[in-house]
Amino acid sequence: MDGTGLLFKPFLNVCPKNLDYSIIPLMSGTNQRVIDQAKVIEKAIGDFEVILVAESYSSILAYELAQRNHIRISKIIFVAGFLGQPSIFSKFSSVFPLSLINVTPNSVLGFSLFGRHSTNALVALFRQSIDSSDRAALKKRLSNIANLKEASLPLKMPCVYIQPSQDQLVSSKCIKVFERLCEHLDIELVEGTHFVMQTNPQAVADIVLQNAGV
């Protein structure tokens, strides 16, 4: 949700160096309408056929792209994603004080985000991503989550859902929406927290590469 792409570093570090990929940062500013962000992504992708890897907040962007059908998507891999309210607390996410992150000790922040997988490097990477992000945009994305309505239109392309075993931010019940909407869905349970691409990057990479035929 930080929109910078910096947090993909642990995942990319375990991927083949010749992997053909593109990280598309999210828009800055207060215009965080999903449809406008989708248009930016469509322009960046162009005519290429792609596999979308959508982590957390970006799941709703991948869903929008699939419904618009302006780009060639062969498969969507959702990582700790949601297409409705991610938890009973998410309706209050827009009032979360982002400044609280700055005063939270590294040990507390690390355990909260990464659990037993926490390292000083991961905490530093998280702080870097937050410091590099647009705070106004972050607040607006939190507002988008607070007001998110459950998706209702089907997803016709093959989909994979990577579900972390200790997701503190997205309820396990969210998978039911994907099961209902996805005509072809594979579910992969992976050890790790909500930040599973950071806490267990190799397991996630194995799934992504297998689905990409790499």
Present the secondary structure layout.
Elements lengths: L8 H5 L20 H12 L3 E7 L2 H11 L3 E8 L19 H5 L2 H9 L5 H13 L2 H12 L12 E8 L8 H7 L3 E9 L2 H4 L1 H12 L2
Q: How would you describe the overall organization of this protein?
A:
The chain is of the alpha/beta class and 214 residues long. It contains ten helices and four strands; from the N terminus they run ααβαβααααβαβαα. The chain has helices spanning 9-13, 34-45, 58-68, 99-103, 106-114, 120-132, 135-146, 175-181, 196-199, 201-212, and strands at residues 49-55, 72-79, 159-166, 185-193. Strand 1 (49-55), helix 3 and strand 2 form a beta-alpha-beta unit. Helix 2 crosses helix 3 (58-68). The two termini are 27 Å apart.
